[in-house]
Amino acid sequence: MTEAPPGAPASHLPREGRDAVADARIRHNDYGSLRPHDLGDGEPRLTVSVVIPAYDCQEALDRTLAGLAAQSYPSHLTEVVVADDGSDPPLRIPELAPVNTRLVRVPDGRWGRGWARQTGAATAGGDVLHWIDSDMILDREHLEAHMRWHHLASYTVVLGDVRFTPDEAGPSAQEVFSAVESGDAEKLFETSAPHAWRAGVLEETRWLRDAGAGAYRLHSGATTSVSTALLRSVGGVNTTLNMGEDTDLGFRLAQAGAVFIPDPQARGWHLGTSTVMRREKEVHRHNWSVLPDLIPDLRWLRSHPRRHWLVPYVHVVVDARDASYEDVRATVDAALAGTIVDVAVTVVGPWTALTGGRRSSLDEPLLDMRLTHNLYAHEPRVSFAEEAPRTSAPAPFRLACPAGWVLGADSLAELVKLAEREEYGLLSVVLDEGAEGVRAIRLERTAAFARAALLIAGGHGADALTADATDVTDVTDVTDVTDVTDVTDVTDVTDVTDNMVHELFGSFWAGADQFGITTAGKAEPVTGDPARWRAESARWRREAKRLEGEVKDLRAEAERLRAEIGQLEGKRPRGPLREIIATAMGQGKTG
Asked: What is the pLDDT of residues 509-527, one digit of tens each?
């Protein structure tokens, strides 16, 4: 995360509210179990830093700061940071502004919304960071409405309710302050309206309670708040982006376990229509050139069959320790050759032990590791690690696969499809059972394991363990499992985190045969089948189209011949028997 610029004014917020949040357990994005206090009640403890990225907008900024000066949330728990993105002349803090307001400038040579947001965030001292645009007017209880959710759970991302005003001159800063202070801000903007697309998503998803993994798509910088610790855990704002940075950040927060909560009482008004509303097609044209690399969840933008992307959809982890070169190769090659092409593979092993000194090429102790490293040293989708990475974020899924087990061409796609459809946090595919217990392939949802880790770290893991963590799940004859089995009744679990994931997202066990997973010795060689099948499919589609044309021509020819026969039949002389048959056919009496 970017550090604060040298000489930037420091935060003077109190610190006594930190670490005071007792996290609640929230399933998926259904925050309905939370019970926020009514506005005007409660005893706030957490501090908030309101960060406003701004550029050449002194008049608009004056109005925004005037509205903030009349907020109901305690002023001693609030600071405002204006991040000047190189305005000329430089922006200034007006007299009508919150007491604890300071100005920072984006470092020389840097510019854009990403840099402005990150510069402000780097200097923020609050427990919660609240973004707002420099042309926003917040209702009197806006900050309070946001903050009540953060007192209930540390991993909430709260979305304000934004309405857009017509593109016309706005009220003065004094008018804004007076209206907000008296609770009459809405009267200033009686012709405002919400964004139609956003309103539709909220209606379809019960205000995101049913949005599942896609809730982040409503994340916007206009008025959004997040725990500062959670923000910094994902690396802050992407400073390379001048547009779409809020969507990218929302996706990364989702992979960190965030729950997105839109609050209709956190009212705010955007002065004028947004750029997206005015130039939607152009905004999409721009953003869809950069976001596919960063957000694998946007599947329709990753339709190319052979492209490599910056962030993979699935991160495959293969443990090569104590495995043969042939087994590792079979597992890695199969993972790279499947119908999901945006995968990355990490091979775990003692790679630092492979020295560059003189050695016996055929007899060195770590020969299998050496051969594996030789094979994939220049494959861009394969990396090497001494230990399995703690997280696969921002990739939304991780597949942990033992070396020697081989995925079929469509195995990974089918596993992910099941996890997406049912929103599972963990899928375990039973491979075999030995003296050390059940061996399985695990498909883990990154967001689910991140949220479980947050809750366990907050003290909610001790009571999640219902049996000895070393005890294997009570599964009988697991090698014979052929049907997906719901583990709702399974009480003996192998790990506290798995149990927490099951509670929050659900988990399933399945058999290897269901998904076409087999051993290296039984697997067919990887020969680029998915690509060949696509080519074959295209060829057969072309052939089908050609045959469809032929059938159409044959039908036309048959109709022509039928007509000619009818004409010839009409010209032939009829005897008594033919007259009787013709009459019967005309009356429908023949069988």
From this structure: 999 999 999 999 888 887 7
